[in-house]
Design goal:
- By secondary structure, the chain is mainly β.
- The protein folds into two domains: 71 residues, SH3 type barrels; 35 residues, no CATH class.
- The strands form four sheets. The chain has a six-stranded antiparallel β-sheet with strand order 8-3-2-1-9-10, with no helix packed on it. It has a two-stranded antiparallel sheet with strand order 4-7.
- A hairpin with a 2-residue loop joins β11 and β12.
Length: 119
């Protein structure tokens, strides 16, 4: 995958189309990413006793209720946002010299930009 944790992405398909957010977690084996505050679903949880509680003799209880949880989005539905041109772009790779050796960088594929995405 050409997208990593911490990248700013824009959703290009689905109910949150056009919105931007940072990637919280990448799941390369499933080809999915979790974007903060996007693709939020309701999750119902039952109250449970927590293991290894530090309280004396009494189990500490994890509260139950309805929670908002960010669900994974397919990687094909997001595009990385270039930090220099501030537009959604495809990602390419270039090898450049750095301290006497070849280093692989992710670059913006926009014709008028071409800047390095990794800082």
């Amino acid at each position: 995958m050409k997208i990593k944790k911490g990248d700013l992405v824009q959703v290009i398909a689905g109910k949150d189309r056009g919105k931007q957010g940072r990637i919280i977690e990448a799941q390369p084996d499933e080809r999915r990413v979790i974007v903060e505050n996007l693709s939020v679903v309701k999750k119902h949880r039952r109250p449970r006793a927590m293991r290894d509680s530090s309280r004396m003799g009494q189990p500490q209880i994890q509260p139950g209720g309805v929670f908002d949880v960010a669900s994974p989005v397919p990687v094909s539905n997001v595009m990385i946002v270039c930090p220099t041109c501030n537009r959604a772009t495809r990602v390419g790779y270039e090898f450049r010299e750095s301290k006497g050796r070849q280093v692989k960088y992710r670059v913006c594929k926009r014709a008028d930009c071409g800047e390095v995405l990794d800082r």
